[in-house]
Amino acid sequence: MAKSIKEIAQELNVSKSTVSLVINHKAERARISKELESRVLAYVEKVGYKPNALAKSLATGRSNTIGLIVENIGDSFFGPFALYVEELFRKKNYHVLYSSTLGDPQNARDIIDSMLEKKVEGIILAPTVDLEEYQRKILEHKVPLVVFDRNSPTVETHYVHIDNEVSGKNACDYLKSIGCRNFGLVTIDSDQPQMLARKRAYLAFCDTYGMEPRILQLPYQHLKQKGSRMLKNWAAKQVGLDGLFFTTNYLCILGLKVLRSAPENSYNFPMFSFDDHELFDILIPKISCIQQPLEPLAKTCVKVLLKEIDQGISIPKEYVISTKLIKR
Amino acid sequence: MAKSIKEIAQELNVSKSTVSLVINHKAERARISKELESRVLAYVEKVGYKPNALAKSLATGRSNTIGLIVENIGDSFFGPFALYVEELFRKKNYHVLYSSTLGDPQNARDIIDSMLEKKVEGIILAPTVDLEEYQRKILEHKVPLVVFDRNSPTVETHYVHIDNEVSGKNACDYLKSIGCRNFGLVTIDSDQPQMLARKRAYLAFCDTYGMEPRILQLPYQHLKQKGSRMLKNWAAKQVGLDGLFFTTNYLCILGLKVLRSAPENSYNFPMFSFDDHELFDILIPKISCIQQPLEPLAKTCVKVLLKEIDQGISIPKEYVISTKLIKR
DNA sequence: TATTTCTACTAAAACGTATTAGTAAAGATA
DNA sequence: TATCTTTACTAATACGTTTTAGTAGAAATA
């Protein structure tokens, strides 16, 4: 159906080389006459010829595709982040091949393998746990890599992130400032470094002010069913609890659903979220939060990756984006 | 860096063909001896050889990639939808190349062109307006196409959607049942068929019950700034307004922000959304809505597309997924 | 006029795979 | 022993591009 460069050449009675050179704006350099150049151009336009990108990539070694690996494209952090990334790359004529790991390392490994096989020119990755080996693999393949949101401390990569520890401290200080004296932490049962950092901040706060730590770790798998029950039971047992710090927005949402919609509505204390959400400012009461600025985050990832692609792989660096505490 | 089949062959002192046949499980058919087969397999495993997917696709004509074109991957309808799609295709060993049109036909056309150039094996598309020609182009290239959410009536494609007119009628009936006698419609100023159908349902309802139609159309571009102002001004002018029917969830959210957070809080009537949102059930008052079942929607799209890919392009059909009215 | 330089192209090789037709050697048949 | 089959492979071609080295003819130089 789609014509090849060979057919175009035959129909014009010229060589494939000529057509290829003209199409790629190398006519001048190759001393193709203006006359022939415009004849080729006109014909190509007329029949709507488009080169086969696979063949082109194979020949040039450039796929014009980058891989974006997130935890869950459907969630309110990674989804909008992905949109920014896509838009930024579109401007540079790159396409984005995305995939969600859902937190499963095996998914992540499969995704990475097939992205490497498809010869992506770079990868932006929010790693799962146990992914050190595969991050090294990416680097061994000389594919530029930028890691964001969380990293794996034992492998050196460019790393774009927020300062979780400082942000977590700010969150605790804020809760204290509005009167909470016995607030707990609800987090996820994984060893993702950013979650650990948020927990560390909370523990440090407890230590400083002599507050008794109350921590609940919920399972990422089947969070909705299992997590709801666990949270309900846990909360019922806490005496004197006067606030909750959730380490992600989806945990906070779960908390709101489980605790606020309880008929007695007995949990009338402040709930604070790490990560904003588009409806947090119209809930009653409104939800204060740590806001990760998505656009700067995305911009930095893209900028760093493009630089690696254009100028070759460089020594890994860290890029820290500062967060905002939104008081509501 | 990455080894090619040629190098593998040389190192094993066999031909490229042998290696290729073994790798693709055609050893038996090609009468390669068991002994040699396992020797090749072992070596391939040992050096971690992975075929170059671009070359493979070029040779076979199969890219194992499908294109997903949505309006906005960051929003709460398309994001989770995309996750389902991705998961379903992953199981069948396909990868998803996604892109957001942001409602701009020129974006959509560029995206379609480059997906065709990359030889995707099928496309799932939520079309923008003015995209008829390009949908025909996809079909002319013999690439299977499934359109969802909205379609372009003048081009025949497989079309997966909900019944917007019936759903719209149900929404109006519901508002009537809870006592609204003068509710308005807030929609978007585009000619997307699904939006028009929702509006038609509202107008028909007005006609049936002699209710005076009050319709506000907001611009998709710069919705947040412009739309907020327009909505505020419009609402202020409506006397006796006792309810609002928003034709999308992001419009409803805008409505909630603009009207509910008004200090006077003078707009204390029911607001109804077309499309659910994860926080609608913890707002006070809760938001009732028409719920589009994402998973069946995604499953149907994927199933239909896979069938087209496997069994060849067939006569276009419509697939109607029924909605649920969620009363809260 | 013999040599060099330009002009305007093209032939050929390469990218890494899949596939089909072919082939040499061994075994079976008559 | 001459022919046919079977076994176990391989050579060659194709997929659709890019790119570099090459070339024939015209123009310029000496």
Automatic annotation (TrEMBL), chains A, B:
Keywords: DNA-binding, Transcription, Transcription regulation. Pfam families: LacI (PF00356), Peripla_BP_4 (PF13407). This is LacI family transcriptional regulator. InterPro entries: HTH_LacI, Lambda_DNA-bd_dom_sf, Peripla_BP_I, SBP_2_dom. One of its GO terms (molecular function) is transcription cis-regulatory region binding. The lineage of its organism: Bacteria, Pseudomonadati, Bacteroidota, Sphingobacteriia, Sphingobacteriales. Residues 3-60 form the HTH lacI-type domain.
